[in-house]
Amino acid sequence: MSTHPAVVTVGPGLPLEVHQIPTPAPTANQIRVRCEWTASTPLDLHQADGGLLVTHPQILGDGIAGTVVEIGPDVSKYKVGDKVFGFAWRGPAEKAHQEYVVAPEFLFGKIPHHVTMQQAVTVPNNFVTAWHTFTKDFGFELPWPKPERYIPGERGGWILIWGGSSSVGQYALQILKWYGYTNIIATASKTHHEKLYGYGATKCFDYRDPGVEKAIVDFTDPNGGIHFVLDCIGSLNGSVVPISRIVRPQSSTKVAILLPIIVKDAAEGVKPIYEMDVEKATQWPEGVHVVGVRTHFYLDNQFLAEHLQSDIMPECLAQGMIEPNEQVIVEGETMLQRAEKALKVLREKKVSGARLVWRVSDEV
Ligand SMILES: NC(=O)c1ccc[n+]([C@@H]2O[C@H](COP(=O)([O-])OP(=O)(O)OC[C@H]3O[C@@H](n4cnc5c(N)ncnc54)[C@H](OP(=O)(O)O)[C@@H]3O)[C@@H](O)[C@H]2O)c1
């Protein structure tokens, strides 16, 4: 069997390694994709430094942009040579930080002609995260295709996107805007406010402002209160605790927190600490519904499994309903250097309003 290189963790906090691993042939509805560009995300750091839900050695990455090089006998959407992007994670063959990925065709969409692979690879995992959270945890309808003159049901009260400049936050705002939601507030550093207003936020708050909690309460309380909170950050002291102080008892507010909750951040030589139990993490007011988001379960929804990545995501990108995150291209001579450098940037918290992307193969 032929082999290809993959970036793997060998233990929490240990330097990454590149291993040669077998290249499987696609069967049934699977396609084999030459992964040309990938992204490094906070989950890679949670897994590499924190060992979160990982059995080492583990191949990292879940965002893929590349070219179809081989198809299984039941594949109907793609042919060899198609340019595709996707979010895949369910086993070694599907992970992204390797030269070839083999996964079912429903985990990919075609990259629109005017979109580069660097741009496309910023989309899949967090577009899926935002869409899945809105429909599953908030019960938003997001009908597809969107009916003409569609008006969303959830119009009273505010939707708070905490961490609007994060990758997830940017896609969340753009999806809500496209569906006609107008009752959205967001937190982010000031430098990103203008962009987030363009993405549909009615009012932005600077999360670094010591008076941010009061400012949000003063703004929302007289205007129906907050009905939904999407915590795109999941930092115990940076988002979870502030949100718990903003939401009102008996308000029936729904709070969705992207897991894991980060109790202690990863840093050079420091092992991070995570919490997966949202109820245990802090004291929540009575009558507030708090859930932890795990996008890895989105395939439980048959409609989303079939359509979210293969139809909805590429169509949203092609029609300009969403624009990709800005990209910071991580340079390095080898695949290993690029992967390590990206983790270092994440560890040093230098990502702001953009996605770290890098070329996977050493052979151009
Ligand atoms: N469980 C799941 O299914 C799931 C899925 C996707 C993501 N996640 C998790 O969600 C988190 C975010 O992921 P991501 O890829 O979107 O992150 P990201 O884009 O790398 O996040 C970077 C952004 O976070 C913002 N930020 C940092 N601390 C903040 C705070 N205290 N309040 C508000 N904003 C803050 C920064 O904002 P400024 O630049 O404005 O300062 C920066 O732009 C990660 O922990 C990830 O693992 C979980």
UniProtKB/TrEMBL annotation:
SUPFAM superfamilies documented for this protein: GroES-like (SSF50129), NAD(P)-binding Rossmann-fold domains (SSF51735)
GO molecular function terms listed in the Swiss-Prot or TrEMBL record: oxidoreductase activity, acting on NAD(P)H
Ranges annotated as spanning the membrane: none
**Entry coiled-coil feature ranges:** none
InterPro entries in UniProt? ADH-like_C (IPR013149), ADH-like_N (IPR013154), ER (IPR020843), GroES-like_sf (IPR011032), NAD(P)-bd_dom_sf (IPR036291), Trans-enoyl_RdTase-like (IPR047122)
> Record's CDD domains?
enoyl_reductase_like (cd08249)
What protein does this entry describe? Enoyl reductase (ER) domain-containing protein
